[in-house]
Structures are given as structure tokens and as C-alpha cells.
Specification:
The complex is a heterodimer of chains A (about 180) and B (about 190). Chain A has about 180 residues and is an alpha+beta fold. In chain A, about 20% of the residues lie in helices and about 30% in strands. Chain A folds into 2 domains: about 30 residues; about 140 residues, Immunoglobulin-like (Sandwich), CATH 2.60.40. Chain A has a 5-stranded mixed β-sheet, with no helix packed on it. A 4-stranded antiparallel β-sheet of chain A has the order 2-3-4-7, with no helix packed on it. The N and C termini of chain A lie far apart (about 70 Å). Chain B is mainly β. Chain B has one domain: Sandwich (Immunoglobulin-like), CATH 2.60.40. Chain B has 2 helices and 11 strands; from the N terminus they run αβββββββββαββ. In chain B, the strands form 2 sheets. In chain B, strands 2, 3, 4, 7, 10 and 11 form a 6-stranded mixed β-sheet that branches. A 5-stranded mixed β-sheet of chain B has the order 1-9-8-5-6, with no helix packed on it. Chain B is elongated. Chains A and B meet through α1, β6 and β7 of A and β11 of B.
């Protein structure tokens, strides 16, 4: 076997090794890196934005405040009825929401939802607080939304007291865009 | 040009096969069905359901049940009331269906009065107590088991819970029937901080 033939063989062997290693690395990591849908379905936060504004699904969000309360009052100073077990607190997030051009809106406005997230991955859904001065959803007749103009909404959550120190912000998501944004305080 | 000797290739193939064999020889877990892992337990035992728990606190036998202030609903068989508590963890729990099964293979679904027909979970960090009522044939009580089956569309790995309600044979079933209370009042669900 002459030296050039031997070099050729070594090169071929090394390239085959590299190709096999590359394929195995690709197959191993594809699930975690490439598949946006899997990453989204696993509940991963794709972007973290401080307060905002951030636009997702043609809606711009800006977190204005995130405050704990022991109870909520309506305009007549009456307690708003929420399912509040002993040892829980009410968290009110106020946000400025702007529906952008191209968003499907009808007479009832549109659907918007933000979940409260803590640093342990817990998520709380917003509750309806009847009588609260701010609308708690984006389809309230008394507070109609206008395209390209910011309106304030409130999202009301009931969480255990022990979770308050862990709270990080509100989470908004959009399935079509496979994005999940965390708006922090 | 010959890239590898035949023996080198054979050794490579052997290693791949050995890798596969080790996966077969030491399965990390054995599942009851291809995509369902069933957690078995008894009354009073907190059972893991994803990262939440379900505990069956007590089982009561009754000849009638009362919901709110309605008239009692009676049966020729027996009502089996199961009182449970769930503690919600971080993960999304989805929904589940509750059913009672017996040694004879009968499956019972809850009566409509409790509205929710599975274990009811609330928001993270909270616990919820609830009760499910089943109308059961009094001759078919041996091996009474409560099952919570996760509802899901995709065939990905999921988890179910199965609770032995402590009726091993007909003799004990008869004792429970003899001591069945005339009426069971469905308690209100209560949410508390876990």
C-alpha cells in the first residue's frame, strides 16, 4: 500500500466518523432544539421582557403594575366576591393592551388572557372580578377597545400567600406564533 | 479501495446491537399499558398524579343521597360515596374521568348530582376536597376499585390513579351493606391553601 493510498483511506475513515457523530448528535438534540412545537407545548417561556411593551398575536401588552391585596372593593365600597380561601391573597395585574391592525375584532372586542407566573413554574389563571373598576377581559361592552389605542385591563389572581415572594410577572402566549412572553415587573 | 476490514465493521455492528440489548434488559419502568402508567394505592394514601396528589379520605355506603335541599334520591342497589382531596402541583393536570370497577369487570360512572365526574383540581398551591357518588349493584361489590383516568387525545405518556376501596370479598361487602347509612348528604366542595 503506497503512502497516498493510505492517506486517502485515513481521510475517508475520519470523514465517515465525523459524519456519523454529526448525525447522532443531530438526532439526539433535534427534539430539544429544532421542534418549535415541542418547545412550546412543554410550556417554555420563549422571551422575557421587562414591563414591555411586547407584541404577540397582533396585540401589544405593557405591564403597568402587579400588586397584592387582601381583598378587592367595588365602586360602592362593597367587597368583591372571589373564591379566597384562608391564607390566600389577591394579586391584581394592570396592563395596557393595544389591539393592532389585522387583529380579528368583533363587537365584543377580542380574547385576551394573561396568566400569572412564579419562579417555580406555577401558573395561575385570571378570575373574573365582577364590579372591579377596570375591565378584566377584552370584550367588556362598557369598556370597548379601539384599534391602535391602548386600553387598561386588570387581571385578577388568587394565590397562596407563600407564593407572593416567588411571583415574577404575567405570561402571554400565542399558539400560532409558538411564542410565550413573560412580562416582568 | 477497501475502507474497513470486515472484522472492524462486524465489531461496530456488534456494539450497536449490544447498546440496544442493554436498553431492553434494564427498562427504567414497566408500564401497565403502552402509554399509561397506573399509580395504585389505598384509602388515606396520597397518590401522585403527575406532580399533584389525590387522596381518598373515606368511602361511605348509603341507601339514598341528598344534594343541596332537594329530595333524597333512593336506590334499590347502594350508593357508594367517595370523599377525596386533591393538592395541585405545578404541572397542568388536564381533566380526568372517575369510575368504579369491580372484580366482575363492571364499570360505574358517577351520578350527575356532583356535576364534576372526575377528580377536581384547582389552581397551583391550593387543595380541593370533593366527593363522588356512584350507584352500584349491591350484589357486585367485591374488589371495588376507584379509577381516575386521564383524558387525552394524543398517545403520549400519561398517568392514571387506581385506588383499592377495601372490599376484598362478598362477606365484607355484606357487612358494609348491612351498616349502610340511610342517607348520604353530598358535602360542599372546599378549597384551601395547600
Amino acid at each position: 500500500m503506497n503512502p497516498s493510498n493510505r492517506l486517502l483511506r485515513l481521510t475517508a475513515q475520519v470523514s465517515l466518523l465525523i459524519a456519523l457523530l454529526a448525525v447522532s448528535a443531530f438526532l439526539l438534540l433535534r427534539v430539544y432544539l429544532d421542534d418549535e412545537e415541542t418547545v412550546y407545548d412543554n410550556g417554555a417561556v420563549t422571551e422575557v421582557v421587562e414591563q414591555g411593551p411586547a407584541t404577540i398575536g397582533l396585540v401589544e401588552w405593557k405591564l403597568d403594575s402587579l400588586q397584592p391585596y387582601t381583598q378587592l372593593m367595588d365602586a360602592e365600597k362593597k367587597k368583591i366576591d372571589l373564591d379566597q380561601p384562608a391564607g390566600s391573597v389577591v394579586i391584581v395585574a394592570t396592563a395596557s393592551v393595544t389591539p393592532k391592525d389585522g387583529l380579528k375584532m368583533d363587537s365584543d372586542g377580542f380574547i385576551c388572557e394573561a396568566k400569572l407566573r412564579d419562579d417555580r413554574g406555577n401558573l395561575w389563571k385570571s378570575q373574573s372580578a365582577y364590579g372591579f373598576p377596570l375591565p378584566t377581559y377584552c370584550g367588556d361592552d362598557d369598556h370597548p377597545f379601539v384599534r391602535n389605542r391602548a386600553s387598561k385591563i386588570a387581571q385578577v389572581y388568587v394565590v397562596p400567600e407563600s407564593a407572593v415572594q416567588h411571583l415574577t410577572g404575567i405570561q402571554i402566549e400565542n399558539l400560532e406564533e409558538r411564542r410565550r412572553i413573560l412580562l416582568t415587573r | 479501495m477497501k475502507l474497513y476490514r470486515t472484522s472492524t465493521v462486524l465489531v461496530g455492528v456488534l456494539f450497536v446491537l449490544l447498546g440496544g440489548l442493554t436498553r431492553l434488559a434494564t427498562p427504567e419502568r414497566v408500564y401497565d399499558s403502552e402509554n399509561r402508567e397506573i399509580v395504585h394505592g389505598t384509602i388515606g394514601e396520597p397518590l401522585k398524579y403527575r406532580d399533584s396528589t389525590i387522596t381518598v379520605h373515606r368511602v361511605k355506603f348509603a341507601k339514598a343521597y341528598v344534594d343541596d335541599d332537594d329530595k333524597p334520591v333512593e336506590t334499590n342497589g347502594v350508593f357508594v360515596a367517595v370523599e377525596y382531596e386533591t393538592v395541585r402541583g405545578t404541572e397542568d393536570v388536564g381533566s380526568n374521568d372517575a369510575s368504579l370497577s369491580t372484580d366482575e369487570g363492571t364499570e360505574y360512572r358517577p351520578v350527575a348530582a356532583t356535576i364534576i365526574d372526575g377528580a377536581d383540581f384547582v389552581e397551583p398551591g391550593f387543595a380541593r376536597s370533593g366527593s363522588l357518588v356512584f350507584e352500584v349493584n349491591s350484589a357486585d361489590l367485591a374488589g371495588l376499585t376507584l379509577n381516575f383516568v386521564s383524558l387525552q387525545f394524543w398517545t403520549v405518556l400519561t398517568q392514571d390513579v387506581s385506588v383499592d376501596l377495601g372490599v376484598p370479598d362478598d362477606k365484607i361487602a355484606q357487612q358494609l351493606l348491612d351498616t349502610a347509612s340511610p342517607e348520604y348528604v353530598i358535602p360542599k366542595t372546599v378549597t384551601r391553601v395547600a
